[in-house]
Amino acid sequence: MKPACIFDLDGVIVDTAKYHYLAWKRLANSLGFDFTEHDNEQLKGVSRIESLKLILRLGGKQLSELEFDAALIRKNGWYLEYIQQIGPGEILPGAAEFLRSVREYGMRVALGSASKNAVLILERIQLLDQFDAIVDGNKVSKAKPDPEVFLKAAEELGVQAEDCIVFEDAVAGVQAARNAAMKVVGIGSEAVLQQAHFVVPNFMGLRIENVLARFS
Ligand code: BG6
Ligand code: MG
């Protein structure tokens, strides 16, 4: 059986990572502390709830259950405000072309994202029809680095974990793929994504034939 591809969304297909960061920073600032881009690296790929727990730990701040839930809603409200205008123009370089080429090559494609906003974003960037299966934050209970999201994607595609190639920009996401015993291509910096099988800066010029050759 041909391997299948599982794509993360934020920071892999679409340039939303910056908006998540801006919304978290705004929340941290409103709680009286700062939140740097360096700290943000730990949050990439991590669910909304786990992200807030991490931020509060970094800021040395405690919230009641009610305040915690309210903070989640505020952050998501700001995030939705930032992505209101999002469109195909924010698809990351080469990502749409790569997705299409994978499908033309006859491979099945799934989304494996922690985001509960995934379908909304895919609709806005007009890529919803490019996926055979979508597993997002509404379908899983365990956050990356837990492998649940990717294992569920493999199950929905009807393929074995070892036949899946994951594309990820986040440390937690790369770990999740490794925990699922899948192959993983890091999208971003080699220094950050050290656990990936190999890393490319983006999809520009990447060919599925070459990816498969690296794993054969
Ligand atoms: C991941 C992002 O894809 O989704 C994280 O990398 C984000 O930054 C997480 O926190 C959850 O997203 P959302 O849209 O459900 O808040
Ligand atoms: Mg990501």
Automatic annotation (TrEMBL):
Site positions per UniProt: Important for catalytic activity and assists the phosphoryl transfer reaction to Asp8 by balancing charge and orienting the reacting groups: S113, K144
Protein name (Swiss-Prot/TrEMBL): Beta-phosphoglucomutase
InterPro entries: B-phosphoglucomutase_hydrolase (IPR010976), Beta-PGM (IPR010972), Beta-PGM-like (IPR051600), HAD-like_sf (IPR036412), HAD-SF_hydro_IA (IPR006439), HAD_sf (IPR023214), PGP-like_dom2 (IPR023198)
Recorded superkingdom: Bacteria
Cross-referenced Gene3D superfamilies: HAD superfamily/HAD-like, Putative phosphatase, domain 2
Enzyme class of the recorded protein, top EC level: isomerase
Its EC number(s): 5.4.2.6
Gene: pgmB
Residues the record lists as binding Mg(2+): D8, D10, E168, D169
Name of a matching Pfam family: Hydrolase
Source organism of the structure: Undibacterium fentianense
Family classification: Belongs to the HAD-like hydrolase superfamily. CbbY/CbbZ/Gph/YieH family.
Binding-site residues for substrate, renumbered to this chain: 8-10, 24, 43-48, 51, 75, 113-117, 144
Cofactor, free-text remark: Binds 2 magnesium ions per subunit.
Any GO MF annotation of the entry: beta-phosphoglucomutase activity
One annotated GO biological process: carbohydrate metabolic process
Keyword annotations from UniProtKB, A to Z: Carbohydrate metabolism, Isomerase, Magnesium, Metal-binding, Phosphoprotein
Cofactor(s) recorded in Swiss-Prot or TrEMBL: Mg(2+)
